[in-house]
Amino acid sequence: MKIDSFKNPPVEYRPVPFFSVNDDVEEERLLELVDEIYGQGWGGLFFHARTGLLTPYLGNRWFNLVKACVDRLRELGGRLWIYDENGWPSGQGGGQVTKLRARFRSKLLECRPSAEGRPPLGTLASKELEIDGRLGRYDFLVKVMPIGHLPDLLEPETVGAFLESTHDLYGVQVGEEFGEVIPGVFTDEPQYATHHSQACELAIPWTGRLPREFELDHGYRLTDHLESLFFDLGDFRGVRYDYYSTLTRLFVEAYTKRIHDWCERRSLAYTGHYEWEDSLIGQIHCIGSAMQHYEYMQQPGIDHLGRGIHNPWVEKQVASVSSQLGKERVLSESYGTGGQALDFHDRRWIGNFQYALGINFLCQHLVLYSLRGSRKRDYPPTLSPHQPWWRYNHIVADHFSRLSYVLSQGRRAVDVLFIHPIGAAWCEYAPTRPERVERMFEDFGTLTENMLGSQIDFEYGEEFILERHGRVEDGLLHVGESAYSVVVIPPMSSLKRSTFNLLNEFSMGGGEILLVGERPSRIEGSESGDLIDFTSALPLVENRPDVIRSAIRPLLHERIRLRRVSGVALEKVLVHTREVDGGMVHFLVNTDYERSITLDVEFASGSKVRELLPESGEVVSFSGSMIDLAAGEGRLFSIDLQIPSEREAEGRGGNVTEVQDLRPVWRVERSGPNQAVLDYGRWRTPGGQWSDPIPVWRIQEAVSSLDEGTEFEIQHEFQNRASGIIDLVVEEAERYDVYVNGRMIRGDPESWWLDHHFSRLSLEGCTRVGDNRVVLRGRSAPDVSIEDSYIIGDFAVSVKDRTMVLEEEEEELRDISDLREQGYPFYAGTLRLQADLDLEPGGAKPFLEFDELGGVVAEFSLNGESLGKAVWREYRIPIDGRIRKGKNGLVIELTNSLRNLLGPRHWLADEFTGVNPLSFKDHHGWTDEYIGVPLGMKGLRLSWRT
Q: Domains along the chain?
């Protein structure tokens, strides 16, 4: 490991965002955004066709834009990754593949009670069956999905058409940059059938060649046993195991391996993620076995949606395969649906959680080219220059760049192999009986969390990967490049025959095998006396945290020992240990969102301990054993590596000797205009009656039902009691005649605010004291998107009965705990807060502290000297040596996000559950009240600590 590369990581270790190409793209604007992305610490972009794209996909203009980006990123030293689809899921070729041939369309095998007369077209077999004591006849028929649904990715010819439609075109246009400026290709959620279609119907995936391939694999006819796939009839577990093993093989070979090989021949990395990786039933419905696909990805990846941490098995699945098969980089598409309120603390908390589990390449969702129309609601957050906090983005980018570098070095140190139960789930799954797999999945997740919470690291063993890459050598079970001294078998009833043989050999060589919750008794779905005899001699333990700890911990190499001193439970701590250059690297993460923990840490070996600080790139000497982990924080320690330190580690402040609450008079300056939203209005057609005030999205629905070309009017109302400059912002103002209090106004086409499509219109001379009306007159058209308008300028804002009231701003404020209540309920930008403090230097060390940050970044200075920034918890800023006796000038520059401006402003749901386009017009979750997030600081104080 090179310390210079830690301080300044090479571009390949930097995060790369999805760049949403989502409008009629202009090259100049595009290149401005490329410069911004690279300049704020990201290593390039994924060029992602997405909702709202008007530039013809894969046409001449499209490739001219790609080439322009490639040229600019070559100059900058960045990278452009290909995204292989127009939207998602991948495999459609922008919708062209299923239009080529009917056989390219996806297929389902349905089971239906037979109707009178002849069986329907597509019936493979009709059978008389006794189900739950009732005799009846059932038809098993193949349903071909219509154009517009998924293509049949189990069919090699379909995948060939997809490659020709997309990948080969990129090869012709920019193939000379493959392996250079263009490092790889991202695939997004490919699947052989949708989860939704199978959940709604008694159906399973199908393709025309499946019966032939099944018989070649297993030596008997699938069509003789179709009932076993749906009902517990015959040797149903064995038939299901055989069915899904062949189905998965066909998908891996037709799609994943074929794209892997295409990329390999062109020095490209195949990356991205597959659909429904996060559950056993999801994998059965859509992809078979996620881990089998990862084997054939140069840089395998996953999706981590939402503003939270969850489903750690998703990260562990992909990281396990990557470690075993020597794949250095592991990608996660992160933060999508996290909402505009996602802040730097959230990003670090979620990212550190994933990095502790084995991710080391962040693909951030989503940089938007345009906010026009519905684009602004495209599974936010918006991680782009539209955000007020954008100038600080490099803080998070640098943090994860340095982590990516360190956690890509050496090898993960793991003793435990955890057998993955997907094969056993195949045996138990039927569309009529999903609950057995759901119980298995619950047990699987509980054991995963119990082991992680006990700081017992492990890697999953997928049984087909074990068959190809497993061996017993020197008393260890090797899988590719990894070696394990302990095997854990979770609650599962069936093992693959090759797994049984491998475990038997491992046990005979002295290997430790532990069963949790159940003794498997079946081989590939069928009862096995040999397996029953084998497992009866193995220890069986309960799936409880205390039992798991006591049973497994004594069997492990103890590389680090943790003892909780205070704070959250030790179960909240994840440990990632790597063997690097003859030493060790430990990454310790507190996964709690709000609370800290203090640990007493004992490193198993080595006297030279260094802490590597990913925020700054510094290396400091670490002595002692006490470690504080703030909420969501990860700390990185090296043991016995030849790394010079720059200074001794600083304490974070000890016991408090004195506290002074800070409640001064504050002066407030805005970095830009204040904002009020016009998201309610009336509407009518010419000569009609005005509607009652309704949300703008409901006006959009009403206008969409009009005949094309029909005139309509929209009226917004606001009250004005302010004397400052006021402007009106209207999206796509060129579509309307705009009137304010009966006077038509026109804007400068070059004058915009926030986004190039948000026209800024001066209201000078148009407004009056009291009630004001804005009227937009337009004509209905298929592409008209009626959006909220905004009043911006010099005023404070209050809301009365859904009407915006503009008032004079207060010159001085005494309460900054939530500035929404002080006239800034929708403000997106930076507020400069200034106050004079009467202070006395003390003997102890002084810190500026506070309890809650309503915003994204708070930047502090005292007496004109910078103190630093607060971007994640805990909120404690050292100010030693900077306090003067008497008057001191404190300045806080508080920057927030687009959340209160763009919403969802009327959604009652908890945004940690995920924000999507429907969140902005959720009938069930709607309230006419305005729902936002705080803007300000609570509990601001000075503390003196020893």
A: 3-412 (3.20.20.80), 416-555 (3.40.50), 560-650 (2.60.40.1180), 661-665+814-945 (2.60.120), 674-807 (2.60.120.260)
